[in-house]
Amino acid sequence: MIRALVTVLVLALAAYGLYLLAGRPGDVALTVGLTTYKVKLVWAAVAVLVLVGVLMAVIGFLRWLLRSPANVAGFFRTRRRSKGFNAVTQGMIAVGSGDVRRAQRQASDAERILGSEPLALLLRAQASQLSGDRAGAEAAFRAMLSEAETKPLGLRGLFVEARRRGDAHAARQLAAEAVKTSPTLPWAGTALLEFQSIEKDWSGALSTLARNANHRLVDKETAKRHRAVLLTAQAIEQAERDRAGAKASVIEALKLAPGLVPAAVLAAKLLSEGNDIRKASKVLETAWRLQPHPDIAEAYTNVRLGDSARDRYARVQTLAAQMAGNPEAAIALARAALSARDFAVARSALSPLLASGATERVCLLMADIEEAEHGATGKVREWLSRAVRAPRDPVWTADGMVSDVWLPVSPVTGRIDAFEWKTPVERLGAPVVSYADDVLADVDEPEQPKLVEARAKPVEPPPPVVEKLVEPVAAVPPAPVEPAKVEPAKVEPAKIEHSKIEPAKIEVLAPEPAKPEPLKPPPRRPPPPMPVVPSHPVPDDPGTGEEEPSRVVRFPING
């Protein structure tokens, strides 16, 4: 728009100038040899303008003619670059969609057209990684190190490849080089901090953390927490050889993170060794209110060495009162009461935990209480068996790994402050087994199919009583009876019927057990009445000459 206005303005000024010249009288004479040419002033001005325009046109044409080879080459070069960048675009799309063959083909075209163009090298590296060609990917990333603008990208790619093949030393060197090249790279600062923490280079890790905080790679709260963790780890390591330095480090850590359990426990230990019991107790109480933990309770119980069990019991009562209703407070109070042999308080402290579901520690503590109060009885074995199947208590857990003690760095990923006090993930949702004093589960509950099946198992009926009672009678050999002397007319029918009963017939007369209903134990049926039948000697039986005691045979009779 501005150029059009300028052009119109110039043309207007030229027309106005010609108008002024046309109004003035005069001629312009041009003498060439002996010939003189005269024209009016206005035409002379027009001729000059035309001549200048022609000269400008000729000069422009000559310039275009001279630049035409470069222009032609630039045209083809631009067209080639456009084709190469189009190959890069299509290749990146293929990498994102997982089309390995297309990605490799487009990467070859882009590298052939663009040469060492950063995007072409990146596409080559991505296509090689997608196809599993690690050597090709590393070659592409190494080619990026030659240019300053692509060096961070090359270091990042080589770092990833080094970690994939498990070369921690090479990965650490690449991370350190990336930090020197560009201190604002978040991945480089984080990786170097993790490697230094794994190697227990606490001084270097603190310096790297400070540099990351200065470049705002981490927020302030995270930086404070990580610094407290690193200072605590440093204090734990130097506690044996430099008590003063460890004490200074852990006190600084508590200022940054008052609820850090290992820092509070170590600080209380070092302060109590210096006979500063009041400050040690205050440190533990502050950490206890922020995060109740059994290590804090143990350190608070023994903050003053040489105290009696009653003194420790009184001290734990003060600590537990600050977090009334917390499971850790109840367990700590029960332990102290057990040491002081106050079994009633110990049981009352654990009763809410037993009502809500006793964990492994609670069951073991109840076993200790039973053994200390009543000795090794069946109750002790019962609580020990319950502890085997009870839900687990919280432990130090990080990245699926369980540790008995707190660690500043995760051994799996190298993350700082990864360990948390919580129940292990693999034990969450475990079926809870009901015991004799628990409420029985519903029979439709799918979590306990075996338990329900065992409880619904029908009770087998007792074996027939007749067999056991008849067997000893049959063992006594009767006196020999002469068949000729037995007269059928003189034998009583009732006595012959009972005396001729065989064991096989008695088993038939036994009642069949009723089939139990599914999932419901059948009621125990009382046995049928047992008639008492006196056994008399058979008529005309001479006997043994001695009076035998009467034998009684008991057996069920249907009808």
Automatic annotation (TrEMBL):
It is found in: Membrane. Residues 487-505 have a biased composition (Basic and acidic residues). Residues 487-559 are annotated as: Disordered. The chain crosses the membrane at residues 41-66. Keywords: Membrane, Transmembrane, Transmembrane helix. The keyword Transmembrane applies. Its main location: membrane. The keyword Nuclease does not apply. InterPro entries: HemY_N, Mms48, TPR-like_helical_dom_sf. Residues 26-132 form the HemY N-terminal domain. Residues 519-537 have a biased composition (Pro residues). This is Heme biosynthesis HemY N-terminal domain-containing protein. It comes from Labrys neptuniae.
